[in-house]
Structure formats: C-alpha cells, structure tokens
Specification:
Helices cover 48% and strands 19% of the residues. It is α+β, with helices and mostly antiparallel strands. The protein has two domains: 5-110 and 273-281, no CATH class; 115-228. The strands form three sheets. The protein has a six-stranded mixed sheet, with no helix packed on it. A hairpin with a 5-residue loop joins strand 8 (95-99) and strand 9 (105-107). Helix 1 crosses helix 2 and helix 2 packs antiparallel against helix 3 (197-226). It is rod-shaped and about 105 Å long. It starts with a strand and ends with a strand. Residues 57-259 form the Cytochrome b561 domain. It is found in: Membrane.
C-alpha cells in the first residue's frame, strides 16, 4: 500500500532472520531498508513453533502516533529481497486497527472494510439503473392498465344512462389527468445538475403520491358501487398493508444508508491517516 510505514522480516539463505523498516513510495518498491516517520529503536523477528513469523519492534510514540491502521502481507523472495505479494485472498483480508494507548487490537479478518465499501458501491451502482428503468416500466405499465380501466368505466357509464356515481367518476377523471401528467413529465425531466431539477423532483413526487392516495380511495369507492362481498375488500386491505410494510422497510433502509454514508465521510480524515504495513516475507523454493 503506497504511503505505508513498513516493518519487514524474512529468513535469509543461512537460516537467520532479518528484520528492518522501510517505506512504500510506489506500487513497485525496492524494499530496501529506510527510516520511518517515527523512530523504531529496535526490531527483530523469529519463527514461532507453529510456523508463524513474529516481528518484535519498539516504536517511539508521539501525540500523533496514538493509533494506526495495520495490514499484514506475505509474499515470495525475489533475488534476495522481498518480492511483490499477492493482492487477493488472505492478503486482502488481514487488516486491523492498533490502539497504542490502551493496547487494544481490533481485528477485521474476512472481507476488509474497504472491500466491503467497494462491494456496496458496485452493487448500488449496478442496481440503481435497473431500479430506475424498473420504476419507469412499472409506471408506464400502470398507466396503460389505468387507461384501459378508465376507458372501461366510460363504456360502463354510456351503457347505463341515468345511473351516475359522481364521486367515483370525478375521482377517476382526476386520477387519469394526474397519471397523464406524471408520465409525460418524464419527457421534461431536467438533468441532475440542472438548477430546476430540485423543483421537478418535488413536482414528480407530489403528483405521484397524490395519484396513489386518490387511486386507493377510488378503489374503495368502486367496492361500494359494486356492493361486493367483504372478502374482496379485506383482501385489498391486506395487499395495502403488505405494500405499506415493504415501503416502511425500504425507507428505513434508505435512511440507514444515508446516515452510515455521512458517518463514513466524517471519519475520512482518520481513515486517511498513517498506516503501519507489516510484511512477513518467506523465501520460496
């Protein structure tokens, strides 16, 4: 990781251990010994009985160096010097945070937080266009079905002279007009950076929610007109409750993502601080 303060150790050809410090200035460092931005009075390494390499180092702490992010990497030897390690598998998962003040170590084995953020970023950006087009398809299909229903209602009215259901008819006309405005508004949608996009969003959401509320009310008016059995009305109420719960969960999830994103942004300064990059290099056969 470019910019890391690194503790390196490997086993030499004579079997002895060699440990030193260096800094990573680019993605292909020469891994030659070099000082760090803080003092390291002593550094040694040894193999444990279970075959793990352990680095022992004394760090000169300061007011700045109170805690740090830590990553452990393992790679091959190349011409007597540590070579480039793998960037996948366990090398991309061995991360943690060290607090030098209280001596605590927070290990984040498994998928690293950075990898998680990359995964979330990719999924959200992959789903968002699909969700947008799904929204457009559903709205367009709903409008087409609504127009068919509205036309059917007009036909029923013409076939029943003298029979008038004023509230149901008037609501149907209003809903048809609002639905038509909602669909054609897509043709006038400003680009995201346009100064009027905010007002278009307010209009779009207001008309959309108004249409939904009026449609629900008019459906209940239709039940009364048909004098249908309570079974149909109960089933429809069950569908509304289900959709309401789904909407509430999606809204809660949206706010959770927004709040988490804001917290991540506020901690960016800490995340961009110094890193200690520990390497466990092994000589390959």
């Amino acid at each position: 990781m470019v910019g890391s303060q690194t503790l390196v150790a490997y086993q030499q050809s004579n079997g002895s251990m060699y440990a030193y410090t260096t800094q990573l200035h680019d993605e292909s460092p020469n891994m030659q010994p070099a000082g760090l931005s803080f003092d390291v009075p002593s550094i040694t390494a040894e193999y444990s009985s279970d075959g793990n390499m352990i680095i022992f180092a004394t760090l000169q702490l300061s007011d700045i160096l109170r805690s740090t992010n830590q990553v452990w990497q393992e790679g091959p030897m190349n011409g007597g010097n540590p070579g480039t390690h793998s960037f996948s598998g366990q090398n991309g998962q061995s991360v943690g945070t060290v607090d030098f003040v209280n001596g605590s170590v927070l290990s984040t084995s498994g998928t690293s937080s950075k990898t998680q953020k990359r995964n979330v970023h990719g999924v959200l950006n992959a789903v968002s266009p699909a969700w947008f087009y799904l929204h457009v398809i559903c709205q367009s299909s709903g409008y087409a079905v609504g127009v068919a229903g509205w036309a059917t209602g007009i036909k029923l009215g013409s076939d029943s002279p003298g029979v008038t259901y004023g509230t149901h008819r008037n609501l149907g006309i209003i809903i048809f007009a609002l639905g038509t405005l909602q669909v054609f508004a897509l043709l006038l949608r400003p680009k995201p950076e346009h100064k009027y996009r905010r007002y278009w969003n307010i209009y779009h959401h207001t008309v959309g929610y108004t249409t939904v509320v009026l449609s629900i009310g008019n459906i209940f008016e239709g039940f009364d007109v048909l004098d249908s059995e309570n079974t149909w009305k109960t089933a429809y109420i069950g569908v509304l409750v289900f959709l309401g719960v789904v909407t509430a969960v999606m809204e809660a999830l949206t706010w959770f993502i927004v709040i988490k994103r804001n917290k991540t942004a506020s901690s960016a300064k800490h995340a961009n601080g110094e890193h200690i990059h520990g390497s466990r290099e092994q000589q390959t056969a």
